[in-house]
Every structure is written in C-alpha cells, then in structure tokens.
Amino acid sequence: MKQRELGNRILLLLVVFFLLFYLSSPATSEMNYSFVCMWPKTQWYFNNPAGIAVDSQGNIYVADTENHRIQKFTSTGDLIVKWGTLGIGNGEFLYPHGIAIDPQGNVYVAEGNSRIQKFTSSGKFITKWGPGPGNTDTFAPTGIAIDSQGNVYVANLNQHIIQKFTSSGDFITSWGGRGGGDGNFVFPRGIAVDSQDNVYVVDELNRRIQKFTASGTFITKWGNYGTGNGAFIVPRDIAIDTQGNVYVSDQQNNCIQKFNSTGTFITRWGSMGLEDGQFNYPQDIAVDHPGNVYVADSLNNRIQKFRPTGEFIAKWGSQDIGDGQFKHPISITVDSYNNAYVTDTGNHRIQKFTSTGTFISKWGKQGTGDDEFKSPHGMAIDSRGNIYVTDTGNHRIQKFTSSGAFITKWGSLGAGDGEFRFPRGIAIDPQGNIYVSDKENHRIQKFTSAGVFISKWGREGTEDGQLKFPNGIAIDSQGNVYVADYANHRIQKFTASGIFITKWGSERRGDEKSKYSHGYSIGVLVDTRVILSPDGQIKYPESIAVDAQGNVYVSDTPNNRIQKFTSSGKFITKWGSKGDGAGEFNHPQGLVVDSSGNVYVTDTDNNRIQKFAPSKLQ
Fold this sequence. Notes:
mainly beta, four-stranded antiparallel sheet
C-alpha cells in the first residue's frame, strides 16, 4: 500500500509539473508563419550558373553551380525537371560546371568532387568515374564534350591535358601538358566537338583556341591576349553550330566572339552590364540545331538566348533592372498604409510597392549626387512618412519624402562624430531620433531627424556593449535599441542612451564543416557544409525587427531562416530553409513587421521579397 501511495504521489507531482510548465509557456509559442506571396514571381532561380548544354530536342540543361544542381528547361524557358544537392553521393554535386549531352540524350556532368557523373535525361543516376587508371589523382574536370560515337572528352584543368573516355568512363587516350607550344595548354577550360569529330579547346591562360583531330593530333590555333577582334583576356568556353562556326565566351571582355572553323573572325557582341545582351562573367555557351546561342551569364545569375548574329531573343533569371525586379535587395520597410519600400542595392535605387507586391514607383541611380546612391542598404520611415536611407558606399544618410523627393543628407567618410564608414542599419525611436549602425567604425550613432549629432556608443570588441561590424538595428515602443552584432554572432539590447541591457546568440557554435574534394589550382573551389545552428543561436545576423508586442525577429542569414525571440532573447519560433521555393531562402537579409504582424523578408540572393502571415498552430 505504501509503495502504491508513493507511486500515486509521484505521478500527481509529474502531472502538476507538466501543467505548470505548459501553462507558463508564452502564448507567442503557439504562433507559426505561413507564406502569403512573393514578388517578382519567376521559375528561374540560378546562383552562378556556369554550365549549359542543349539536347537534340532543343531542351536546355543548366549547371546551377552554387546551388549544386542541374536544371532542365524547354527552349522557351519552362522548367521541366531539376536534380541534385550538395554532397558526395551519387546524384549529389559540388559546384557542377561542365555539362554535355550524348546522342542518346544522356547527361554528363563535370563537378568539383573530381569526377564525371552520367544521368538519364530526367536526372536518374547511371554511373560515375574519377581518379583511376589514365586518370590521375589530381583529376580536375572542367569542360566536357561528346563526339558522334559517344566518346567523352574532358578538359583536366590541373594536369593541363585533354582526356578521352568511352561513354562508360573507360580511359582511351590523353594529350597535352603544361606549356605554350602547339598541343600544350595552360589551364584548358572549355571543349567542343564538331560534326567531323574535330576537337576544339579553350586554352585559357595561353589566350587561344586550339583545334585537334579526335586522337589529339594538332591542326591549328588562333587568338592572343587583348580586347580586339579575335583576341582574348580570359576565354572560358566554346560551342560549334551545325555549319561549323565557332563561338567563344570571354569572361573578362564580357563578350561572345564568333569565328569560322579555321579561326577567321566573323562577329562579336556583348559588354559589361545587366541590360539585355550585356554580360557579367559569361561562362559556358551552347548552340541548338536552328543556330540559337545560349550563354550562362553567371554573375548576372541568368541565361541569355541570341540569334547566330548576336541579336538578343530572351533571358531567364531572377535578377534584372526592370520595374518590380531586383538585383540583390537588402532592406525593406513599410509605411502606415503598409506600402513596402525596398533598397534594390545592386541597382542603386529604392522601389515602392503595395503590400502584395504591385509596383508603385522608384527613385535613385548610381552616383554621388543628391537622390543618387552607391549600394544603399538600410531604410527607415518616420511618423510623417519620410524615408531615411543609409547610402552605404557614399558613407552618408539621405532623407526623402514618401514619393522620393530629396529633403536632406548628412555624413561623410571618417571616424568623427557624424561621420561614417559604411553605415548599414537605421532605425527611428518614438521621439523621431535616428540611430545608425556605423559598421566599420563598430559603433552606433544617434541623430536628430535633421541629422544633428546627439551621441554615440560602442567600439570594436566582444565584451558587453562592444560591437564587431554591427548591421541591423531596431527600436521597440519603449525606446530600447536592438543591434545585430554581425561578426559577434549575437543580438545586443541597449537603452536609448546606449547602456547595455542584455544579449543573446552564439559564437558560431554549430558550424562544423564537412570538406569535400577539390583540386582547382586557379579560382580554387573550397566548399564547406555548414551545419545549422541550434534554435536561438545565430550566425552573422544581418537584420532585426521588432513587432508591436515587443517580439524580436532576426534574419539568421547563413542558416537561411528567420528566428523570433521575446524582448529578453528567449527563443519562440523559426522558419525557412535553403532553397528557392515558397518559404525557402537564399541569403535572407532585410525584414520588417507590419501593424498586422505580417513579416516581409528580402530574400536577397533569390532576388525577391517574401511575405508571411502569423497563424495559430493547431
């Protein structure tokens, strides 16, 4: 009886403990966030696309290099299928770059795990090969091409050779070696095979094209260092059309050059920029059967399509300069009508939208004058609707009306009071005072709404109240100041006068690294798989926001998620993961909460805005 009574008492205590714990949990823990909308809407998300190939049906395959995957599209850009993720297993990739299609439609991919992988046209893994007989331990495949018999030619970057394999990966022959003579190479990159099975190689640092028979016998060469017709600075890839014309991408000259099969110059197009027909580091190039030319415009994160003469036809990508489109949006804020304002940082302008993403207006361009910007970052709106922008590259603050009319500015490069060194975050307190995170001076500065200096606090360090490259800043209804202490991987909370209150976050705990094989001696590819930090820990926080209830939202950027905390730093919830689907992120930075509790996030490397609404968990 006594044992049963003791057991009943223990059970009762456990039930009471559970009920007390459950009832004491904050109501905010019952909230989750649901995806509402995004803008702009697109199906084309690339991160440094480096490889491109076309099959006999005109379908386009793209090596989406920094997303570690292959994407397949129709000739008009409709997504068909995608496959791959970061890893070392079958069907996984480390920076895939070279890609080729055989006569049967099988897909071959050269990637940074020092191997070739072969797939069906729908992405089903078939086989792989890497270091082995005739294929040294420093196998670094870059370009890849296939002849009419299905033999596979690989440009082996580190060994400065071309290697030839059967379609199953059996070694046949190789030729080359480091040097400047005929048949030698210094970092062979692109490779292509014509209808006669002649092999063309981009000899990158010899700034030339070399042509060989299928067995490696030298035929001819052309090219030299320069910017003129027929000259190259960094030639990258090569493609051949059905008439035997040769197209070469030059990533440093940001152009495409066209030659006949013996190297006589025909035409060229392209220049540096984001306009149609311009490039930023063009890499692979492919030609379909009608002669249309496709270019992996890698640092513009898009594919461009041209006629054989260079006339622009179409483009696919999330990054652009049109109204409602972005190039690395950083910050976002909302006014009392829930209109959203976005710093379109890479386009050096501000864009204004409705709460559902309908474009309203824009202002700004690159420059140093009034109403001009150099990589604007932070933004805040006062009670009158005036907009304050940290004009980061110009080391100043600019103030505008809600329609973009210039009002005033203050600041210049320096470390004195009222001077800045790359100002980033900006916030406004209930009295209308302006707080700026002066990033590379490792401090916070406080001003009147007219830009008159009031006070400052902080210096470089890791102690309480010290900062290391502070980024985002936010203020609650009580006037408390929250700072995203970027390189200290934490949030710090201060009074309005800069007195330290509390802190939370982490010191990069949880970023264990899983290294993958590589072997690239120029443009070294080094990858780490970063393990997600535990809940409540933060890595490199970019931005911070506070809602009407005093809850704090943090863009946990490398972890590709948003975290929500109480005002004292207690973890509440999180959402987001790496990707380009709804509710997924690629380097999220800015965020803001509107009066209804909706959260807007600048999904920076996906070049879009995402909106989320709070919802009760069932």
